[in-house]
Amino acid sequence: MALIGSGVQESTDPGSSYRNFQIWDLPGQIDFLETNFDTESIFGAAGAMVWILDAQDDYIESVGRLTETILQLQQMYPDIKYTVFIHKVDSLGSDFREDIVRDIIQRIMDDLNDAGLENPPVSFYPTSVYDDSIYEALSKVLQLLNPQLATFEALLNTLAGSCKMQKLYLFDVLSKLYIASDTSPVDMAGYTLCSDYIDTIVDLSEIYGWDRGKLRSGQENENGSADESKALQKADESDAESFINGIRGYCLYLKEMNKYLALIGFSKEPRFSLEKPLIDYNVQIFQDALAAVLVLT
């Protein structure tokens, strides 16, 4: 079991993620609701609870402890959101995997409904350490704690429609978790490409990047010519961007939004690369709108 704090604050450290949050890892076999534990100090600041359930083991007992925990916490802390990671599903056959996932969800929801908890705030995600499903699931958990999620999704839906993007993500670069996406269905193959895309860009920036902002703050290029100084100044003031055409049938687009966030999208449209100037214009409009929203948070 893991707890994620509700006090998710915007970061001011350039070397950190867009949002700072705390994760508490708690052993699931211990009942932290017993009287000898300080319940308030453990659950009082929690915004979300993640219960990791091993799909390979006998999960009946774990399901029982989970439903009991949710029922007790709902009485004391009704604002906590609950997420179940059905883990290690990769080792199960495709047909058997669907049956296991369906059975776990049905058991938990039936137990909660039978106890009188209607429409319980519980989400379910099959996960594995051998693909990016764990990042996808953690991204969804953090989105539960984002009060501006609906606004971000509306902006991304508009941009995706105008640019003919199959999927758009607003990624936190350091953690590789996305804080929002458009509301179209997730394409896991495309999501994996986007995640790998971030890794590549970050690796290249560590080799060829520089500490942007020094020229902006007045530091001059003492050894270079006037033209070199102007070129560096222009690069220093621009946001990083990248475009790749024809990767496994996808066109990938990346644009830095600020020092924490990057917009990444992909499309299978054959004319996507030809319309990049129009896409750049639309993305700039989106970036301005996003900046205005972030100022209000």
Shape: globular
Mean pLDDT: 82
What profile does the largest beta sheet have? 5 strands, mixed
> How many runs of DSSP E, i.e. beta strands?
12
Estimate the strand proportion: 15-25%
What portion of residues is helical? 40-55%
Radius of gyration: 22 Å
State the separation between the terminal residues, measured CA to CA. Answer: 30 Å
Number of helices: 8
Low-confidence stretches: 7-15, 231-237
Walk across the major sheet and give the strand order: 4-1-5-6-7
- Element order, helices and strands? EEEEHEHEHEHHEEHHEEEH
Class by alpha and beta content: alpha+beta
Walk me through what this model shows.
With 297 residues, the chain is an alpha+beta fold. The protein is built from eight helices and twelve strands. The protein has helices spanning 39-43, 60-76, 94-114, 133-144, 149-163, 188-208, 226-237, 276-296; strands spanning 2-5, 9-10, 19-20, 23-25, 46-54, 81-87, 122-127, 167-172, 177-181, 241-247, 250-256, 261-267. 27% of the residues are buried.
Describe the SSE topology.
Blueprint: E1 2-5, E2 9-10, E3 19-20, E4 23-25, H1 39-43, E5 46-54, H2 60-76, E6 81-87, H3 94-114, E7 122-127, H4 133-144, H5 149-163, E8 167-172, E9 177-181, H6 188-208, H7 226-237, E10 241-247, E11 250-256, E12 261-267, H8 276-296
Parallel strand pairs: 5-6, 6-7
Antiparallel strand pairs: 1-4, 1-5, 2-3, 8-9, 8-12, 10-11, 11-12
Helix pairs in contact: 2-3, 5-8
In short:
This protein has 297 residues and is of the alpha+beta class. The chain is built from 8 helices and 12 strands.
What features would you highlight for this structure?
12 strands, alpha+beta, single chain, 8 helices, five-stranded mixed β-sheet, 297 residues, five-stranded antiparallel β-sheet
